[in-house]
Specification:
This protein has helices spanning 25-40, 83-101, 106-111, 113-123, 134-178, and strands spanning 2-9, 14-19, 49-51, 61-68, 71-78, 124-125, 128-129. By secondary structure, it is α+β, with helices and mostly antiparallel strands. It is elongated and about 95 Å long.
C-alpha cells in the first residue's frame, strides 16, 4: 500500500502532499522534513530505494524516489509493494504531468494544483494503484476538465441572466408608470 506521495523542490518546500493514512499535521510535517533530509543528502548515483523514516514506521516502509531537475518525487510504501513497480509508477506520474502541462515545471504544480491532484487520483486512490496507462489517465483528466469548463459556462450564463434581471425589472416599472392602470374600488372594512 502507498502510505504517502510527496513532491518537493530542492530547497525542501512541499509542492504536492498526499497522505493515504491519517497522521496528525505535526507528524506530517516531521515526516516531510525527515524524508527530504534522507533523500536530498543522497548522491544521484546511488539506488532510489531507502528504508522509511522512523516517524513513518522505519523498516516496515520504503521510500522510492526520483529526482527530476528541481523536484523530488517520493512515494512512501509498505514492504508489500514492488520497488520497481513504484519506480515505474513515478515515471507514469511525471510523464502524465509532462503531457498535461507540455513540459511540466515547478510553477505548474503550484498554479494548477487541482489538475495535479486529478492526475494523482486517476493513478492511485486510497493508497492503491488504479491506473498505469497514460492514455487512460489523460483521457479521464481531459473529461474532468471539459466538465469543469461546461459548469463554468453554465454558471456565467446564469450570472449574466441574473445581472440583467434588475435592469429588466426597472424598465418594466417605468413602462407601468407611463400607462394608467385602473384598480377596482374595494369596499372599506370598518372595525
Amino acid at each position: 500500500m502507498i502510505r504517502a506521495i510527496l513532491v518537493f523542490n530542492n530547497q525542501g518546500k512541499p509542492r504536492v502532499i498526499k497522505f493515504f493514512v491519517h497522521y496528525p499535521e505535526d507528524t506530517q510535517q516531521a515526516i516531510i522534513k525527515e524524508v527530504f533530509h534522507m533523500v536530498s543528502t543522497r548522491d544521484d548515483t546511488v539506488c532510489n530505494f531507502l528504508e522509511g523514516p522512523s516517524k513513518l514506521g522505519g523498516g516496515d516502509f520504503r521510500l522510492i524516489y526520483r529526482h527530476y531537475a528541481t523536484l523530488y518525487f517520493v512515494f512512501c510504501v509498505d514492504t508489500s509493494e514492488s520497488e520497481l513497480g513504484i519506480l515505474d509508477l513515478i515515471q507514469v506520474f511525471v510523464e502524465s504531468l509532462d503531457r498535461q502541462f507540455e513540459n511540466v515545471c515547478e510553477l505548474d504544480l503550484i498554479f494548477h494544483v487541482d489538475k495535479v491532484h486529478n492526475i494523482l487520483q486517476e493513478i492511485c486512490m486510497g493508497g492503491m494503484v488504479l491506473e498505469t496507462n497514460m492514455a487512460e489517465i489523460l483521457t479521464h483528466v481531459e473529461g474532468q476538465d471539459s466538465k469543469e469548463k461546461s459548469e463554468v459556462t453554465a454558471t456565467s450564463t446564469i450570472k449574466n441572466t441574473m445581472s440583467s434581471a434588475p435592469n429588466k425589472a426597472l424598465s418594466a416599472v417605468k413602462n407601468l408608470q407611463n400607462t394608467s392602470i385602473k384598480l377596482p374600488s374595494l369596499p372599506s372594512i370598518k372595525f
